[in-house]
Automatic annotation (TrEMBL):
GO terms for biological process: diaminopimelate biosynthetic process; lysine biosynthetic process via diaminopimelate. Homotetramer; dimer of dimers. GO terms for cellular component: cytoplasm. It is an enzyme of class 4 (lyase). The keyword tRNA-binding does not apply. HAMAP family: DapA. This is 4-hydroxy-tetrahydrodipicolinate synthase. Pyruvate binds at T46, I214. The keyword Repeat does not apply. The gene is dapA_3.
Length: 309
């Protein structure tokens, strides 16, 4: 069994003059390792995998895995520490092709695969169970279900999730369905680790007993998201509430326009990447970019914390 607790960051894919910027990607991995995140997601929605060809996807994953290992060693191979775990997003609606992809990924040192329901075709719940079962059977690594109906067009109903929870390799769910009843039922059932997929739900999910979050907005102030998780899991509710309230404006701004444009705008303002996306995605508006830059400025969260104390 793997442990998917904590704050996981679904990495953006930085570009420079239209090509993947592997140097910037490597630096981001080190930055988030230093911030204490639990793990990374490669080729998730935030990473714009639909805009990458197969060779680019493989190269992005190779860079992330290598950088995650190097970060664990302090960058010089000296201490042999455990590499930062990396989940890999696998999407599609052709089960056989996805099986082949997952079989290839199983040969790599990954923490598992993150799989959404088949998009666009809107299969029945029985079809969804068959699809995920076939993929989990093909995987030697743990599977994290990705319930995100506003992207796929179909929801993973509670009975479906509970059925899939019986599979020995299906171990967690990224919960983006927006149903408190489903979230609570899965946590109470206890077989799947529940990770908040809507960033504004992190506080509620962890307080209810969920395992953490896969949070795109954690790109921007990773150390504060880690502090939030640690405070809540240690029972320091007042501290956790203060941190969460500080983060809410940043979380809301990070999703005010299509993801990952806002995240990339602030990372670019911080000098970490270039503000580039691939069509059909577009850059964040100037107004939102200015708002994000203000929210992400050094000292903003510290000042808010002092006022809230």
């Amino acid at each position: 069994m793997s442990d998917f607790s904590g704050i996981w960051i679904p990495l953006i894919t930085p570009f420079a003059d239209g090509a993947v910027d592997h140097a910037a990607l490597r630096a981001l991995v080190r930055r988030y390792a230093d911030a204490g995140v639990a793990g990374l997601v490669a080729l998730g929605t935030t990473g714009e995998p639909a805009a990458l060809d197969a060779a680019e996807q493989d190269a992005v994953l190779a860079t992330i895995l290598d950088a995650a290992q190097a970060a664990a060693r302090g960058g010089d191979g000296a201490n042999g520490a455990r590499a930062l775990p990396v989940l890999v997003g696998v999407s599609g609606n052709h089960t056989a092709s996805m099986r082949e992809r997952i079989e290839r990924l199983s040969t790599l040192p990954i923490a598992g695969v993150l799989i959404a329901a088949p998009y666009y075709i809107r299969p029945s719940q029985a079809g969804i169970v068959d699809h995920f079962t076939a993929l989990a059977d093909a995987s030697d690594k743990p599977v994290v279900l990705y319930d995100i109906p506003y992207r796929t067009g179909v929801r993973l109903e509670l009975d479906t999730l509970l059925t899939l929870a019986a599979h020995p390799r299906i171990q967690a769910v990224k919960d983006c369905a927006g149903s408190l009843d489903t979230t609570l039922a899965l946590i109470r059932d206890g077989r799947l680790q529940v990770l908040a997929g809507e960033d504004v739900a992190i506080f509620n999910t962890v307080c209810l007993g969920g395992s953490g979050a896969i949070a795109a907005s954690a790109h921007l102030r990773p150390e504060r998201f880690v502090a939030l998780y640690r405070a809540l899991t240690a029972g320091r509710l007042d501290e956790g509430r203060r941190i969460f309230h500080e983060l809410v404006p940043l979380i809301q701004a990070a999703f005010a326009e299509p993801n990952p444009a806002p995240v990339k705008a602030l990372l670019a303002a911080q000098g970490l990447i270039r503000n580039e996306l691939r069509m059909p995605m577009t850059r964040a508006s100037d107004a939102l970019a200015a708002l994000l830059e203000g929210l992400g400025a050094p000292g903003v969260f510290e000042q808010d914390a002092e006022r809230s104390a």
